[in-house]
Amino acid sequence: MDYQSLLQEIRTYGSKGWAIVYGVSGAGEYERAAGGAWITGHKGKRFLDCGSFALFMFGHGNSKILTALQDLLSDGLSGTSRVLCHAELAVALESLVALAPSHLQKAMFLNSGSEAVEAAIKLCRLKTKRKKLAHLSGSYHGKTAGALSLTDHAGFKADAHPLLQDVVRIERENAIELETALATGDIAGLFVEAVQGEGGIHPVEPAFLQTAYKLCRQYGTLLVADEIQSGLGRTGRLWAFERSNIEPDIVLAGKSLGGGIVPVSALIASESAFSPFDHNPYLHSSTYGGNPLACRTVIAVTEIAQAKNFLPDVEQKGAWIESALEHLHNQFSDVLSACTGFGLMRGLHFSSNIYAATTLEYCLKTGLLLSPCLSNPTVLRLVPPYCLERSDVDYMHGVLQQALHHCRTLQESS
């Protein structure tokens, strides 16, 4: 199928808006194959994937994950009756809990990040017998009704009201405002991202997260760490909150947990916080949650993440990227105002949203995929897979250098 015909099919039978987005992207190709850090378009053009909204931490078509799935399918088990249990679920639960800090001893599987957030909302309310929830400014927790209520983006919420009513927005890193809110004693859960993704790759100050942790303990509020984008090694730690030495009651995982192949997310919790779901499993369940294919994927992913060289490898490649971005910032500080993040989760902050959009389009046309920050139009995300090679970083640096030079040229000619 040619490119225009594909867009017409999407326009006719799906979202006209998405057809427009794909059409104006400037790529002129649709993805046909992918492997490692690279995507190949239907005309043969190759794109270095440093975007995809942080989905492919373990690369495209990871052989370990694919082999695990093929082995399971050859054994004849792909779905679950939900009446009989299956061995994959038990092994996957144990594997994921083993990957989490020791105070987190229980887990459940769902199908998307937003579903995991919804489960956490319910669990916070069930455990504490309170209704109110709190989130930070700049937050993003999803687009389903409950998750959207905790997302700091007015545009996503427009005309979707009424959402959850008992929600408090806390200014990020404002400890006084946080204590004022929690001291009321009626907030069930505080949702945080140790590194905010959609909000602009903003690492929340460890001192603030430590204060939040202590205040949650003091006032009986459950602390929920949303690691859906930042978890599983992306920041150079298995979990981004580990940089702050805190112990969340609930941790949410997703995106990379499915290896970029199978939709799966997870809620991981302390035994105490999880107790309502222990007492009544029907309080929150999912037909496809914890299916054999998802569980086999989780097992393979946790094996990769537990490998001795995994985190050092992420740190090394993160250092390559940091050096490249520092060079670009020094060279084009009038266009690229700052670079933030850790490991393989980096934010490119531009002095205007025009520069950000221009860079995004230029890179796409040239063969480098980045992701925008939907809640912060002046920031682009650079979130490559851990299988990135040094030559890939050199390529990324070269394309970005051209893009930033292009932005400066446009500025000088205007």
Q: Report the sheet-strand fraction.
A: 15-25%
- Can you say what the CATH homologous superfamily of the largest domain is? Type I PLP-dependent aspartate aminotransferase-like (Major domain)
Mean pLDDT: 97
CATH class of the largest domain: Alpha Beta
Protein name: Putative aminotransferase
Keywords: Aminotransferase, Pyridoxal phosphate, Transferase
Cofactor: pyridoxal 5'-phosphate
InterPro entries: Aminotrans_3 (IPR005814), Aminotrans_3_PPA_site (IPR049704), Class-III_PLP-dep_AT (IPR050103), PyrdxlP-dep_Trfase (IPR015424), PyrdxlP-dep_Trfase_major (IPR015421), PyrdxlP-dep_Trfase_small (IPR015422)
Give the tags:
414 residues; Aspartate Aminotransferase, domain 1; globular; single chain; alpha/beta; Aspartate Aminotransferase, domain 2; 2 domains
Q: In words, what does this structure look like?
A:
This protein is an alpha/beta fold. The protein folds into 2 domains: 36-61 and 309-413, Aspartate Aminotransferase, domain 1 (Alpha-Beta Complex); 77-306, Aspartate Aminotransferase, domain 2, CATH 3.40.640.10. Helices cover 43% and strands 18% of the residues. The chain has 14 helices and 17 strands. The chain has helices at residues 3-13, 16-24, 63-74, 87-99, 113-128, 145-149, 154-157, 175-182, 206-219, 271-279, 292-306, 310-331, 353-366, 390-413, and strands at 31-35, 38-41, 46-49, 106-110, 132-136, 167-170, 187-192, 195-196, 202-203, 222-226, 250-253, 265-269, 336-342, 345-350, 368-369, 371-373, 376-382. The strands form 4 sheets. It has a 7-stranded mixed β-sheet with strand order 4-12-11-10-7-5-6, sandwiched between helices. Strands 1-2-3-15 form a 4-stranded mixed β-sheet. Strands 13-14-17-16 form a 4-stranded antiparallel β-sheet, with helices on one face. The longest helix is centred in the last third of the chain and has 24 residues, at 390-413. The chain is globular. The two termini are 40 Å apart. Pfam families: Aminotran_3.
